[in-house]
Write a structure and sequence with these properties.
- By secondary structure, the protein is α/β, with parallel strands linked by helices.
- The chain folds into 3 domains: about 5-260, no CATH class; about 275-570, Spore Coat Polysaccharide Biosynthesis Protein SpsA, Chain A, CATH 3.90.550; about 590-629, no CATH class.
- The protein contains 27 helices and 21 strands.
- The chain has a 7-stranded mixed β-sheet with strand order 3-2-1-4-9-6-10. Strands 14-13-12-15-18-17-19 form a 7-stranded mixed β-sheet. A 3-stranded mixed β-sheet has the order 16-21-20.
- β12 (about 275-280), α11 and β13 (about 305-310) form a beta-alpha-beta unit.
- α11 (about 285-300) packs parallel to α12 and α16 crosses α21 (about 505-510).
- It is elongated.
- The termini are far apart.
């Protein structure tokens, strides 16, 4: 192994992307930097020094090659990958489609499988003059036929003519490439310095001449990339030239990573009069998050700042723009969108029932996302704020890890005389193992002591607890299990559950008077209303406490969407097929409930004890029956 060779592999990106840590060979570079409104921090940019960054729309990733050629003269090897495409250094041919190895993420597991470790890569690279990706089939067409179907035939003809005129030695290789049914894609390779220098002189001379002869003025976005596509054909032509000159060449599998987002870390600290509020949301729930944001903004104190952090996987650029415009109404309110795709990768065994979504688990990530923040408010999307949340944020948690209200709904179900959900008692006593059932809290509104939580749990530890079983009430059960005896209980005013399925009557009937009294009084002047259940106020305007939701909804940018959605739901109730559809939905819900109860019963101790005690009598009856037969 040669440890003295100066090797750099430039990883081109036009958006911030994850690049494996700890491998000094990999150098991320932002392409088209001159056309971008921002320069990504802590990486190279192709608009520094001598460059063609402004031509990125036509030259594509070749602007990185040009930059390295002109500005990095002291390297021994030059390599070029993409933010989603790398080469596999594994000597074993990995499972693939058309020589491409597909992964959801570039992570430690995929890096290990691809054997992309610095020392090993260095050892392989220095044994060869050039490393290329393996050739890929192009659907049964020749390169020429494929080009003519997708781009302009006259442009490829121009390329061929330029090669004939300026570099006739390469014409036989050109014919071989354009008549082939395989191609080298993506302008990816690793080359020794002297080869790279010769290649770039040849490549960019040809491209510059083609650029002069082609009229790009009426081209689509894809056709504007013609020079970049030329680069791929020229790369293949040059590979044949090198093969013919007995250069030592290695062909490796190419990868494609579906997700390349970086894990977002917010390096912010506690500040006086700054209130951080976290919401988890998916794209379909943005409408309701907008109402929550409206209520938070309208009740904000102008002397304080409110920083909203919206954790998500899939919120569209259009919906982000809607929410960003919405908060402009309040100079003291801001919103940041945190994509947690990478952080959630690997957490595949989380139980989610039909009424919740995976977003409910995102709060486990907060200790990682905010490594320097001591405290934060977390709000479920189906809440609305009816006062200044600064009062909640400023509560002193002392040594406790969470500030939360008791879950009066669950407490009512726990009571032995309440038959609505008999498994709640076993869940609290035997699974969560609370010493006193009245200390079960509702997780829709939380004040989190992140500093204290970090000292006790990592996010991976919380997910590990969650993945051990199908928790009856999902993440809420996990939090009650992890933080029992570490909770500061706050008044129900901060988490007023609306009345659904006789909730209020159950609370009055079964919950200890001090707790039930606090809940009943809280309903008269709620600080935060929580629509935990179905139907929601956007499904039925007559549900309990719906007034608060629509009070804030009517000044939201999504108000018309909410009304349109509500009308559609009401209309569906009177259409000819609605009765059948509704009955089917109800039957499905009842079937789900029955299946769940059956699963709970079969998992119960009494059921298993009954099976054990009746085993011998059953076997005797079976034997007696056979003998009589």
């Amino acid at each position: 192994m040669n440890n003295n060779e100066n090797i750099k592999i430039f990883v081109s990106m036009h958006k911030e992307s994850y690049v494996p840590d700890g491998n000094a060979l990999l150098c991320p570079i932002q392409v088209g930097s001159a056309l971008s409104s921002e320069h990504f921090p802590n990486i190279l940019h192709d608009d520094e020094g001598e460059n063609i960054s402004l031509k990125n729309k036509s030259y594509c990733e070749l602007t990185a090659q040009y930059w390295a050629w002109k500005n990095m003269p002291d390297l021994d090897y030059y390599g070029f990958f993409h933010y989603r495409r790398y080469l596999s250094f594994n000597p074993i041919q990995l499972p693939n489609y058309e020589n491409i190895v597909y992964y959801d993420y570039c992570d430690d597991n995929s890096v290990d499988e691809l054997m992309m470790h610095e020392d090993y890569m260095r050892d392989i690279i220095t044994q060869y003059d050039v490393i290329y990706p393996q050739r890929n089939p192009i659907g049964g067409d020749t390169v020429y036929e494929h080009w003519c179907k997708n781009l302009e035939k006259k442009d490829l003809d121009i390329l061929v003519n330029v090669i004939i005129e300026k570099y006739p030695l390469f014409y036989p290789y050109t014919k071989q490439v354009i008549n082939s049914k395989e191609a080298i894609h993506c302008n990816m390779f690793i080359m020794k310095k002297e080869i790279f220098d010769d290649y770039c002189k040849w490549l960019f001379d040809i491209l510059e001449e083609c650029e002069k002869r082609i009229d790009f003025s009426a081209y689509s976005t894809e056709k504007l990339r013609t020079l970049g596509h030329f680069g791929e054909r020229l790369c293949a032509i040059y590979s044949l030239y090198l093969e013919n000159n007995n250069r030592k060449i290695l062909y490796l599998q190419r990868t494609l990573f579906k997700n390349t987002e970086k894990a977002t870390i917010m390096n912010i600290h506690d500040e006086k009069d700054v209130i951080p509020v976290v919401i988890s949301c998916n794209n379909s729930y943005v409408k309701y998050a907008s109402v929550l944001i409206e209520s938070l903004g309208k009740n904000s104190d102008a002397s304080k700042r409110y920083c909203i952090y919206l954790l998500n996987l899939d919120i569209s650029p259009e919906n982000k723009a809607v929410l960003c415009d919405q908060v402009k109404k309040w100079p003291n309110v801001s919103i940041d969108f945190i994509n947690v795709n990478r952080m959630m990768h690997g957490h595949k065994n989380l139980f989610v029932d039909r009424h919740l979504s995976i977003e409910t688990y995102f709060r486990f990530l907060l200790v990682d996302i905010f490594p320097n923040l001591n405290k934060v408010i977390y709000l479920d999307c189906d809440t609305v704020v009816n006062c200044d949340v600064a009062a909640l944020y400023n509560m002193d948690l002392g040594e406790q890890l969470i500030g939360a209200a008791r879950d009066v709904d669950i407490l009512s179900l726990y009571h032995s005389k309440c038959e609505r959900d008999p498994e709640v008692r076993r869940n609290i006593d035997e699974v969560i193992e609370l010493k006193n059932y009245i200390n079960y809290f509702q997780a829709g509104v939380l004040l989190l002591n992140l500093k204290g939580i970090r000292a006790c749990y990592s996010s991976d530890q919380l997910f590990s607890i969650a993945e051990k079983r199908e928790w009856k009430f999902q993440d809420q059960d996990v939090l009650n299990y992890a933080f029992k005896d570490k909770v500061k209980f706050i008044t129900s005013q901060w988490n007023v559950l609306y009345d659904v399925f006789d909730r209020v009557e159950r609370v009055k009937k079964y919950v200890p008077s001090e707790i039930s009294g606090d809940y009943i009084r809280s309903r008269e002047k709620p600080y935060i209303i929580h629509y935990a259940g179905t139907p929601k106020p956007w499904d039925d305007i007559n549900v309990d406490l719906a007034f608060y939701f629509w009070k804030y909804a009517k000044t939201c940018p999504v108000y018309e969407n909410l009304i349109h959605e509500l009308i559609q739901k009401e209309y569906s109730l009177i259409t000819p097929h609605s009765d059948m559809d509704n009955q089917m939905n109800r039957l499905q819900e009842e079937n789900d409930i029955l299946k769940w109860h059956l699963r709970e019963i079969r998992n119960s101790f009494s059921y298993k004890l009954g099976l054990f005690l009746t085993y011998v009598p059953r076997k005797i009856r079976e034997k007696h029956g056979k003998n009589n037969g």
